[in-house]
Amino acid sequence: MRLFRSHLPSSLRPRISLRIKPSNRGFHESLGYSQPPEIFTNSLQKTLEAHRTSNRANLVRKVINTSEPKGIFRPVIPPENLAGYEPSKETPSEFVSPPSGSVSPPKRTRHSAEKSPSEETASVAFDNQIQWNVDSREDRLEQRPWLYHLGSENLGLSDGPSRLDAEIQALGTYLTPTTREKATVTQLITSIQNLLGSVITHPPQVIGSWRTGFASSHSGVDFILLVEDFGRSVDSIRKPSATRPKALATYHNRLREVERALKQSPQFDGQVHFSGKRNPVVTALHCSTGLKLQFYCGQGLPASIEYLKDYQAEYPAIRPLYMVTRLLLETRGLFGAHTPGIRPDALLMLLAAFCKMNHGRFQRSDSLGDQLLAFLRTYGTAVDLRTTGVAIDPPGFFNAETIREEIRMFDSHDSLPAHLRGQRSLVSLKRTAAAKRNFPAAGQLCIQDPANYMNDLGRACFQTMELQSVFADAHERLRASLHAWEESSGHGSRDSILSHILQVNFDDFEKMRTRIACLDK
What we know:
Elements: H1 2-6, H2 31-34, H3 44-59, H4 117-127, H5 160-175, H6 179-195, E1 205-207, H7 209-212, E2 221-226, H8 245-263, E3 272-275, E4 281-285, E5 292-298, H9 304-314, H10 318-330, H11 344-357, H12 368-382, E6 389-392, E7 395-398, H13 400-407, H14 418-435, H15 439-442, E8 448-449, E9 452-456, H16 464-487, H17 499-502, H18 507-519
Parallel strand pairs: 2-5
Antiparallel strand pairs: 1-2, 3-4, 4-5, 6-7, 8-9
Helix pairs in contact: 5-10, 6-18, 9-11, 10-11, 12-16, 13-14
C-alpha cells in the first residue's frame, strides 16, 4: 500500500488536515506568558538566560490574602523583639559610669537569657527562698546583725578604714556556718550518698563552696557524679570532648536516674528539676532545711577547687571580701546559678585576679576596707567588662587591642604562650557574636579559667552592665559613708559604715538558719 501511494500523483493523494482544534481551556494565561522572551541574535547565552528568567518568573505567582483568618489572634510584638532591631544610636558603646548616688534597679532586657516556662518556674521556686529586701510596709526593717560580732576594741574606732575593716570581718563571721549547721550539712551529704548508692556506681562527691571553704550558712550543696569515659583511648593524651553527643547522652541518662530517685524520696517532696542540654544539671530543694542541692556529671573533680584553695591560702582577704560582695549582689538578684548574674566561682576568680594584680599594695593589717573600695572601683568604673576580659594567671585585663600588641612580640603564632592563645580565642568568640548581632553573648562577662585557658568562667553572666552599675554605686556610697563616719568621729547616726551599701533584712536568713540547726537535734 505504501508503494502504491508513493507512486500516485500528488493531485490524487488524500489530503490529511494537520490543524489542531484550539482548546477552550485557558492554560497558563498569565501576563508573563503573553509576552515572549527576548531573543538576542548575536548571543545564545544571553538568549538562554532571558528564557530562564522568564520561566522562573512565571512559574509561581504570589497571591496575597489581606483578610485575617477566623479564630486567629495576632499579638502585638514590641519593636525590640523583632529580627534586625537595632538599639538607639544615642546609647554609647563604651561603658558610662552611673552618676553618684542611687542607681536604678536592674531591668530585664533582651540581653537577659530567655527561659522556657518550666525553667522560669523552677528558677523562681529555687531562688526565692530568702528575701533580702527592706520594706517598712511589711515590717521588714533594715538590720545590722554583724555588729554583734564586733569586738569591744572596735566599738569606739573613729578611723573610718579601720572601722570598715572590723565590720567586714564581723560580717564574714556572722555569715559563716556554725558548728551545728556544718554538722547538719554533713548529715545531709551522708543521707544523699546513701540514697543514691543503689542508683549510681560511685557516690556523689561534694564540690563548690562547701568543699573550698567559702560557704555561708545558706549556701547550697553541689555534687558531681563521676562518670567513666570508655571512649577515651589509653594511648591518647588528649581527652575527648565532654560535650560530644555520646558523653552528653551518658550524662543525661545518669542525671535522669538521680532525678527519679530524688523525686521518690520524701526529703524533697517532688521539688526536683532537670535542666540544661549542653550542661545538664539536676536541682533539688531539701524540704526540712530549705537548702538547694545541685548535681552535675564529670570525669573528675573540677580543677578550680585546688586553685581556689591555693588563692585563699595566699590571699586570706579573699574570703571576707567574697562574703560582702556576694551579699551585695545576691540582694539585688545578680548572684547565683539560676540568675543571669555572676556565679560563685566567677566572683571568686574576680577577687583572686584583683588580689594578684594588687600584690603587695595593701600593707596594713586592717586594710580590708581599702581593698573593698579598690575592688569596687576597679570592676565598677575602671574597665568595661563587656569588652574587656579578666585573666588570673598571669593576672591582668585583655581585649582585642592588648592581644594584638602582645602577639607582635613573638616571631610566629606557633610560639605564642598558652594563655595568650586562650585570650585570643575568647575575644574571637565575643567578636563573632557581635558580628552575628548576638549582643547578649558579645557583652557577657569574660573570665579566663586558669585551669583551662580556652574556658570562659563568666559566660553565664549576661547582666554585665548591671553588675558594674552595682559596684560603681556601692563604691560611691561607701566613700560617702567613710567620710561621714570620720566627720562624726565614729558616732554616726547608724553606727555602721557597711550598712550604707547593703541595706538588708535578715529575717528569712535567720529562719533558714533555725531550720538547719533544728534538723541536727
